[in-house]
Specification:
With 73 residues, the chain is an all-alpha fold. The protein has 3 helices and no strands.
């Protein structure tokens, strides 16, 4: 079954930016945006991994303590 589609308004500068990051000329804007979303999600997961590693290292170096301020930094 075919997915529903919608019309989205974009500033021309955004369209130009999307054109610049296409992997190939006939790639759809839908695919470009999906790739951006995938990369953002992967980056977020990597950031969480790094933060957990930093938290563990802080506890190792400085002992147990209240690190709640660092968690939201």
């Amino acid at each position: 079954m075919k997915e529903e589609v919608t019309t989205v308004q974009l500033n021309k500068s955004v369209v130009r930016a999307l054109k610049r990051i296409k992997k190939y000329p006939r790639e759809t804007y839908n695919d470009v945006i999906l790739n951006l979303i995938k990369n953002a999600e992967e980056t977020r997961e990597f950031d969480k991994f790094v933060q957990e590693a930093q938290k563990a290292k802080m506890k190792e170096l400085w002992g147990e303590g209240d690190y709640t301020a660092w968690e939201n930094a």
